[in-house]
Amino acid sequence: MGIFKRIRDISAAAINDLIDKAEDPVKLLNQYLRDMEDDIADAEIAVAKQIAIEKKFKHQAEEAAEMVEKRQEQAMQALQSGNEDLARRALVDKKEHQQKADDYQTQYDNAKSNADALRRQLSEMKSEFEKMKNRKDTLIARAESAKAQKKINQTMSGFGKDTATKGFERMSDKVMQLEAEADASKELRSSNRSLDDELEALGNNDVDDELAALKAQMTKGNDEGSKNEQ
Question: pLDDT value at position 5?
Answer without folding.
Answer: 53
